[in-house]
């Protein structure tokens, strides 16, 4: 077996981790991995690095004309014209001729990923990856902000802190759940027209398998489902929901349902209370 330094598959292993090998060459490399422990270890390390690439870049706007520039370079290389590295940061400087050092430094790939000798389709794969990275990072950041808002609304201490965490109403128990109680608070969501409503219930009867408690947003005779929740052994449960400004609500009710799929109340009401949103100013009817 060849040593790690002498192994001719070193560069192909990096391309395999990037899923950039043609089918026939991929089969050859995978057959080699089955017999070479050193290359198998290198492949596992490459996979680990590739999985972290989307998280390695700082959030920033891409350079102007990036899309046209990269695609033009990839197309030129595929036709045997100027090298892929031409025009990229680092290209043409001493110690970084053409593609290898320029592209490697620009993408901040680890040193063991040697781009020398890669085929034109590697350039195209790199172009696709760079162009998709910005959109992926934007989506991750957007979802992270949404998750942070939801976690703030669902935090056990949220109802006791902050000017927007004051309890708006206490839902009283009905004869179907004596001793139960629920507190309701609302939370502003900056930048959006609406609020989070958070309900924390205690002392509710334990549910049978398949059952659920369902929150209802009530306006006159209209009932709109606000979501479902279950309770722990002590009868405690919570729910945080988003309510747009254009959804009128004057009361809240909680019913015990045979399943979590109802569009109208079917089981007994266990909690009820009025929510004067116009007076509180937290939500507008």
Short description:
This protein is of the alpha+beta class and 285 residues long. It has helices at 10-17, 23-33, 37-56, 66-78, 99-107, 120-154, 277-280, and strands at residues 167-173, 181-188, 194-202, 212-219, 222-229, 237-244, 251-257, 269-274. It has two domains: 10-151, no CATH class; 158-280, Immunoglobulin-like.
Structural features, described:
With 285 residues, the chain is of the alpha+beta class. The protein has two domains: 10-151, no CATH class; 158-280, Immunoglobulin-like (Sandwich). The protein is built from seven helices and eight strands, in the order ααααααββββββββα. It has helices spanning 10-17, 23-33, 37-56, 66-78, 99-107, 120-154, 277-280, and strands at 167-173, 181-188, 194-202, 212-219, 222-229, 237-244, 251-257, 269-274. The chain is elongated.
Using the CA coordinates, give the radius of gyration: 29 Å
Distance between the termini: 76 Å
Strand order of the largest sheet: 5-4-7-8-1-2-3-6
Average per-residue pLDDT, rounded, comes to 69
Q: Which runs of at least 5 residues are low in confidence (pLDDT < 50)?
A: 1-5, 81-118, 144-165, 279-285
Element-by-element helix/strand order = HHHHHHEEEEEEEEH
Count of spatially separate domains: 2
Q: Find the count of extended strands (DSSP E, 2+ residues).
A: 8
Structural class: alpha+beta
Strand content: 15-25%
Organism: Caldinitratiruptor microaerophilus
Protein name: Anti-sigma-W factor RsiW
InterPro entries: Anti-sigma-K/W_factor (IPR051474), Anti_sigma_zinc_sf (IPR041916), RskA_C (IPR018764), Znf_put (IPR027383)
Pfam family, one: RskA_C
């Amino acid at each position: 077996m060849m040593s790690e330094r002498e192994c001719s598959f070193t560069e192909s292993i990096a391309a395999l981790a990037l899923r950039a090998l043609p089918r026939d060459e991929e089969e050859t490399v995978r057959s080699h991995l089955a017999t070479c422990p050193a290359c198998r270890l290198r492949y596992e390390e490459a996979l680990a690095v590739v999985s972290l690439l989307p998280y390695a870049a700082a959030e920033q706007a891409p350079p102007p004309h990036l899309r046209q520039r990269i695609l033009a370079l990839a197309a030129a290389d595929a036709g045997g014209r100027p090298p892929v590295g031409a025009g990229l940061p680092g290209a043409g400087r001493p110690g970084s001729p053409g593609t290898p050092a320029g592209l490697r430094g620009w993408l901040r790939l680890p040193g063991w990923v040697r781009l020398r000798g890669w085929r034109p389709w590697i350039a195209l794969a790199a172009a696709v990856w760079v162009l998709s990275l910005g959109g992926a990072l934007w989506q991750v950041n957007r979802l992270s902000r949404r998750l942070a808002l939801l976690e703030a609304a669902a935090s056990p201490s949220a109802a006791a802190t902050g000017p927007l965490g004051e309890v708006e109403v206490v839902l009283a128990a009905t004869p179907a759940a004596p001793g139960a109680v629920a507190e309701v608070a609302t939370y502003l969501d900056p930048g959006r027209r609406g609020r989070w409503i958070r309900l924390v219930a205690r002392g509710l009867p334990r549910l049978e398998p398949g059952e659920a408690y369902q929150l209802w947003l009530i306006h006159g005779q209209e009932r709109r489902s606000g979501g479902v929740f279950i309770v722990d052994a002590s009868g405690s449960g919570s729910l945080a929901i988003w309510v747009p400004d254009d959804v009128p609500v004057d009361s809240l009710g909680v019913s015990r349902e045979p399943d979590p799929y109802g569009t109208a109340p079917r089981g007994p009401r266990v909690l009820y209370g009025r929510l004067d949103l116009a007076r509180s100013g937290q939500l507008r009817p």
